[in-house]
Prior knowledge:
The protein is of the alpha/beta class. The protein is about 50% helix and about 15% strand.
Amino acid sequence: MPESRRKVATEYLEIDHPWVSHRHVPIYEWTFPSEAADQELDAFVRAREEWATRAHYPVAWVVELSNITKANAKQRRVFAEHLKRFEEHDVLWNGGSALIVPSSWLRGLVTAVFWISPPKFPHQTFAKRTDALEWAQLQLDAKLDEHRAQSRVPSGP
C-alpha cells in the first residue's frame, strides 16, 4: 500500500466491534460468524450505526458471509431494518459493498435481506475475497473522485 494511503488511513474511524477489520480502511471488512445470537447481531448493528454518526467520508465494504450457517427470520429482519436506517449514510458515502457469498444458500439469504431493504448503493457478490477487495477498491476510488469533484464546484453566489 502506498505511503500516502497509509498516512491518510490513520484519520479514519474504527468500528468498535470484533466482526470488523480495519486493515484496509477506508475499505471496512466485516466477517459474520457461523451463527450469531440475537444480542450479538444487535451489538454489531448498534456499533455500525454509532460509527456512521461520525464517519463522514467515502468508504467501501467487503462483507464475508461465507461462514454463515444459520440466520433466523428475526435476524434477517433486524439486518434489513438496520440497512434502512443506514441508508442515508450509504447513499452519501458508500462507494460499494462487495459481498462474499460462495454458495447458492448464501445468495438466497442476501436476496431475502435485499428484498426487504433494496440497497441504494453499488453492490456485487463474489466467491473469492481477493476479487471482492479489488472491486471494492475500484468502487471506493470512483466515490473518492466523485467527492473531490463535488468539493471543487463553487457553491452559490
